[in-house]
Write a structure and sequence with these properties.
With 129 residues, the chain is α+β, with helices and mostly antiparallel strands. The protein is 20% helix and 30% strand. The protein has three helices and six strands. Strands 2-3-1-4-6-5 form a six-stranded antiparallel beta sheet. A hairpin with a 4-residue loop joins strand 2 and strand 3. The two termini are 22 Å apart.
Length: 129
C-alpha cells in the first residue's frame, strides 16, 4: 500500500543505486521512434521531447557523446502520489551537500538522477535521512 506519512516515508526510504550510466537527450517528435523501446523515460514538452536513456544505447551516435552522465537512485519506499514533503526533504538534503538532482516521480517510487561522479555520496546522504 502506498505511504503518505512523511515520517514513515523517510524511515523506509531505502534508496538503491541502479546500475547504469544515464543521459538526458532532447529530440524532435519525429526522432522518438529511432529509440524504440529503449528509453527509461520520455516527456513531451513544447520545445522538444526529453528522453532519459542508458548511455550504452546512444554511444553509437557521436551526436550524444557530450551529454553529462547521470546515476539513478530509486527510493524503494512505495510513496503515494499525493504524499507531501518527500521530494522537498530529499532535495534539501542533497542541496545541503550541493549535489544536483533531477527527480522523476512514477506511480510506485520516486527516482533521482544525480551526477555519476557524486552517486555514492548522494546515496550516503539519502541513507542518513
Amino acid at each position: 500500500m502506498a505511504e503518505k506519512d512523511l515520517t514513515q516515508l523517510l524511515k523506509n526510504l531505502s534508496p538503491r543505486l541502479i546500475p547504469g550510466d544515464f543521459v538526458f537527450l532532447t529530440v524532435q517528435e519525429d526522432e522518438v521512434a529511432e529509440f524504440g523501446k529503449t528509453p527509461l523515460a520520455l516527456f513531451r514538452e513544447e520545445e522538444a521531447v526529453t528522453i532519459v536513456i542508458e548511455r550504452s544505447f546512444v554511444d553509437r551516435s557521436k551526436r550524444y557523446l557530450s551529454q553529462p552522465i547521470w546515476a539513478l537512485i530509486t527510493l524503494t519506499v512505495n510513496s503515494d502520489l499525493e504524499a507531501v514533503g518527500l521530494i522537498a526533504a530529499v532535495s534539501n538534503a542533497l542541496k545541503a551537500q550541493e549535489i544536483p538532482v533531477n527527480v522523476f516521480s512514477a506511480f510506485f517510487h520516486d527516482h533521482l538522477f544525480v551526477p555519476k561522479s557524486r552517486a555514492k555520496e548522494a546515496l550516503e546522504v539519502l541513507q542518513g535521512l
